[in-house]
Amino acid sequence: MDVLRPQIIRIGDRCYRKNPTLDRDFNALEEEEYEESTIQCDSWNDETCDTFNIEETDRGYQTSVNLPSAFFKHIIGRKGETKRRLEIETKTQIRIPREGVEGEIVITGPERKGVVSAKTRIDVIVDSVRRKEPFTHFLSLPVNSQPIRERFLEFQEDVLRKCDSDRGIDPTIFQKPEKLHLTIGTLALLNKHEIQQALDTLEDCKQSLIEPILRGEPLTVRVQGLEYMNDDPSSVDVLYAKIQAGEQAERLQILADRLVDRFSTTGLMQQEYSRVKLHLTVMNTLMRRDPTSIPGERPPEGKRGYKERESFDAMNVMKNFELYDFGNYTVNSLHLSQRHGAGKDGYYVCAGSVSLP
Q: What is the pTM of this model?
C-alpha cells in the first residue's frame, strides 16, 4: 500500500483509512478467511465516531445493526475468529442470527466506547465486502424519448453501413434504444430492507435536492458528440455520447454529484470519484454476452472465471461520427432501476422513481 495515498473508505459522512491485511492461503473454500479491515479512528473515541443510536441498559450499553444475512459470515470469520477478536478487543458481546435467518446484529458491552468501536469496525467490514458484491440496482436518468431513439437508430444504421468491416463492430454491441440512459451510481442492495432504504432516500432527495436545484424549471440538455473510455480508439470497449457543456449541463452535473453524495452516506453506494461522469452509452462490448449489462459496469472484484471482453475498432466511427447530434432531451424522471430485465416499456425494471419538473 502506498502510505501517501491510502485507500479511503466512506461510512456515513465520515472517511477512514483502510490498512492492509495479511495475505493468507487456505486450501478449501470453506476454510476461506474473509477479508478483514482495520481503520484509524482517533483511538475509537465515541465523540468522533458515534453517529448511531446507543441505548443504555441495566448492564451497560447496546446498539443493533440491521444487515442482510449475506454479511454475517464475514463478521463471524473463519471458525468464528473475526467475531471473537472483535469481542475481545472491544470488550463487547456480539449476537448474530443463525445462518440463513434475517435479523439484527446486537452489540452489548459495559462501556459505551466499546460498543461504538465494535459497531464501527463491523461497518468497515461490511463496506469492504459490499464493494465486491455485483450491482443489483442503479440510479438512472432515462434519455429515451421518441426523437432520441429515432436519432440513435439512425446512428446505429449508419455505423453498421459504413463501419461493418471494422474489427468487432456488429449489432450486438449497440445499446437498446429503449434503455438509453445516464447512470448516476450503482448500488448492491441485498434484501428488501436495503431496497426500501434506497427508495426512502430517493424520495427524500426529491424535496431536499431536486426541487431546490431545479426550482421548478425543466432540465433540458443537448446530447451531441462521441467519446471513448480509453486512450486507444482502435481498441474500445465503451463508446458514449456526450452531454454538451452549458448552464443546463452544469445544473445536471450538480444534481448528479449531490445525489451520489447523499446516497453514499447511507453506505449503499460507493463514491469513487468527486464528480459523476455524465455519459450516454451507445456501444458496449459487455452486451455481446449480457444484453442487460449496465454500461460502464466492472465485474465484481476477484470474480472467478471472468473472461476478457472483446474490444472493437472505433477509429472509423470517430472519424465519421465524432460530432453526431442525437438532439435535445428534457430529463423528466430519476429511477432506482434493477440491473437485469426490462419493464413493459422496454426500459430497465423500475423499483421506484421520482419525477423532475
A: 0.76
